[in-house]
Recover the amino acids of this structure.
């Protein structure tokens, strides 16, 4: 199957980490898109115009990242990133949703901050920044239950924190949440994390 992403997307990184963590590193043939290519190509493949998107050999397109990650997880016979049933399943999916929400807020803050000063909305920055603060506090509260090896929830959390660092949003989060920072340090050492680090800003 063919995958389309940008090097910096935390949502695409989730999928890229998932295929590595499930022992399927070559299952998706990735094409990393520039801004121009993303604008030109994605509307044809994904009506939402967002990455990641995966096109199956049948021609069916899958989007967005939770759907693609669930699909990837269904293709292997090892320990699942998303438990099949019970309370743990719903906790993992909740953690993934929380982490994706954090990533979305960071994207919004970074995009607004990249505008010329006279075009920035402080209201948007403040509102989305508040979401970053509350999401980080919620992650801290859940961190005691984090798994090793990681589930889909922890993978999404690591991608969100990595994207915060990448965009320089809430740069003091380690000082405010030291236990979360210790966990993130362990996640950063995993091959799936190191192999998916963005190489440049896009």
């Amino acid at each position: 199957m063919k995958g389309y992403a940008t090097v910096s997307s935390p949502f695409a990184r989730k999928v890229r980490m998932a295929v590595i963590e499930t022992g399927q590193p070559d299952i998706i043939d990735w094409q990393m898109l520039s801004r121009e290519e993303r604008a030109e190509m994605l509307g044809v493949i994904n009506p939402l115009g967002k990455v990641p998107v995966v096109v199956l050999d049948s021609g069916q397109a899958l989007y967005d990242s939770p759907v693609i990650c669930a699909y990837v997880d269904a293709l292997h016979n090892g320990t699942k990133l998303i438990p099949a049933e019970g309370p743990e399943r719903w906790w993992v999916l909740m953690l993934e949703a929380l982490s994706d929400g954090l990533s979305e807020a960071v994207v919004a803050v970074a995009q607004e901050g990249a505008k010329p000063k006279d075009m920035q909305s402080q209201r948007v920055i403040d509102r989305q920044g508040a979401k970053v603060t509350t999401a980080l506090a919620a992650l801290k509260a859940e961190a005691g239950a984090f798994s090793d090896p990681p589930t889909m929830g922890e993978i999404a959390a690591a991608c969100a924190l990595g994207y915060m660092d990448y965009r320089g949003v809430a740069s003091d989060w380690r000082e405010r949440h030291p236990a979360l920072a210790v966990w993130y340090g362990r996640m950063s050492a995993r091959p799936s994390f190191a192999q998916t680090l963005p190489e440049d800003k896009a």
Remarks:
- The first helix runs from residue 10 to 21.
- Strands lie at 2-5, 29-32, 53-55, 61-62.
